[in-house]
Predict the structure.
Amino acid sequence: MPDILFDFPVAATPDKVFEAVATPDGLTRWWTRTPADGDPAVGAAWGFDFGPKFQWQGVVRRFEPGQAVEWELTKADPDWRGTRVRVELEAQPGGLTWVRFAHEGWADGGEHYRISAYCWAMYLRLLKHWVQRGETVPYDRRLEI
């Protein structure tokens, strides 16, 4: 099975990055259309809004404040169902955080996998801009920037 993996530094503390990747308000700044909906606890169901035809859901499989979050997608496009999106954070000297991103469990490396890999790269760039600079991009323009 192919996986989408990205490792990169962010000039912010792990707590600040965690807020951006594991809270409803944080996620909407760079990924979802509206704030995600869910409780910060393992086993909690979350909703992710990407527009009228894309009301996806996931279950929290890992939640370690300031360190890691992981969702298993339960309602999504068929290629995404059962995959896991994970972010792990590690403090580095100089006020940096090392981000280890993974979207794992893809059945194959087909077209949707390749498109999603590109989209994740674009979105993770927006995550970094949000955390480091406070910059947001309107949802409908996020893959244009």
Remarks:
- The longest strand covers residues 55-64.
- The mean pLDDT is 96.
- The chain has one domain: 4-141.
- Residues 4-141 form a domain with the Alpha-D-Glucose-1,6-Bisphosphate; Chain A, domain 4 fold (CATH 3.30.530.20).
